[in-house]
Amino acid sequence: MVKTIAHVIIDPLLHIYNRTIMAGKVHDKMKIAKVIPVFKQGQKDVPSNYTPISLLSVFDKVLKK
User: Any residues with CB less than 8 A from the CB of 47 and at least 6 apart, and which?
Assistant: First the structure.
């Protein structure tokens, strides 16, 4: 989907990336992740038997690279 709208979002995205690099700080809204608990082993009703997996935005992943 991003590839199909790349021609529309490239300029604003480039502006955000350049400002982030010049400031040396990633904006807090770019750091928002969806956290999914994934069951490891043992009893399912014990919270310590789950590991958190953070799903970050594609745009944040590109910026971190």
Answer: none
Q: What is the residue extent of each domain of the chain? A: 6-64
Q: Are 49 and 41 in contact (CB under 8 A)?
A: yes
30, 63 Cβ separation under 8 angstroms: yes
Reading the chain (65 residues) residue by residue, the pLDDT tens digits are 878 998 999 999 899 889 988 998 888 888 888 999 999 999 999 999 999 999 988 888 777 77
Cα 43 from Cα 32, distance rounded (Å): 30
Tell me the three state secondary structure of residue 15.
Answer: helix
